[in-house]
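Fig. S4 source data, part A: sequence.
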Amino acid sequence: LTSNDGPGETILIATNPPTPYQSMNFGRQVPAPTLRITEGDTVHFTFANQGQMPHSIDFHAAQTAWSKNYQEVAPGGTVSFDWKASYPGVFMYHCGAAPVLMHMADGMYGAVIVDPKGGRPAAREYVLVQSEFYGSGGQYAKMLTDPPDFVVFNGQALRYKTTPLVAKAGELVRIFIVNAGPNSTSAFHVIGALFSHYESDGYPPNAMGMHQTIDIPPGSGALVELTFAEPGTYPFATHKFADATKGATGLFKVS
């Protein structure tokens, strides 16, 4: 994995109107690449800092000493270590360099999905990472004191209103959700549908039945499953509507 920052790392966090944002990122994308592995796997990890300031890594799915493997890496430096995926679930990873708030709010986060041994039932699957953007990037004081200007799924406001997620009536749909924050809780909800299955942190022993809305605190994840009863258009959003109106809204188009 590479880290990047600087003038060349501008992303669009909204398209109407076009809204540029000065990002820090992993792999030159926001959110960062999703890592998908299986319970019991060993991850051989190498991190290369290609940016202009120190960065680091923090895998919520790993159990390893912060003082050993999560320290800041200077520009041009690398670090390598192994970690084992001991628990199935839906996890976040992010930069932990100081100030952590700014590195995360500027885009340095992604999802790790650890599938249980034996897998899960077949389903149409999606990964959604909710996050916030403040100003035009790098505005630490604003991140500390002001509400976000945009709250988004997968890096861009209203991304899935213009390009809806697709599904078929009657099929099982599975959504892996990570709330990267860094400050706001997600209250994920699909209008016109109910979650038939919910796992806090995506951990199978946490499985629960019907839910209408699920709370996901910053830095956490969840898994939900649902089946759309009939064809049509189904909005999804955070039910914190101040955040939904800032871009955390999308659509399912069900045939």
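Fig. S4 source data, part B ends here. The chain is about 10% helix and 45% strand.
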